[in-house]
C-alpha cells in the first residue's frame, strides 16, 4: 500500500481564518484595553497614596 503525497497530517497550507483588517482591528482594541487598564491601575495607586499621606482628623 503506497501513500500519496499531501494526504496525511498538516501538510497543506492553512486557510486564512480572518481578514487582515479584522486582525488589525482586534489588535487595536486589545491595545486600547491594555492602555486603559494601565491608566486605571495608575490612578488607583496614586489616589491611594494621596489618601494614605493625608492625616486623619481627630
- Radius of gyration, in Å, reads 26 Å
The backbone outline, from C-alpha atoms, is rod-shaped
What string gives the helices and strands in order? H
Main beta-sheet strand count, sense and barrel state: none
What is the helical fraction, as a range of percent? 55-70%
Overall number of strands: 0
Report the span from N to C terminus.
Answer: 92 Å
Task: Give a topology summary.
Layout: H1 20-53
Please characterize this protein's 3D structure.
The chain has 58 residues and is an all-alpha fold. It has a domain at 19-58. It is built from 1 helix and no strands. The longest helix has 34 residues, at 20-53. The chain is rod-shaped and about 90 Å long. The relative contact order is 0.06. The model has no long low-confidence stretch (mean pLDDT 80).
Q: In a nutshell, what does this entry contain?
A:
By secondary structure, the protein is an all-alpha fold. Helix content is 59%, strand content 0%. The protein starts with 19 loop residues before the first helix and ends in a 5-residue tail after the last helix.
List its salient traits:
1 helix, rod-shaped, 58 residues, mainly alpha
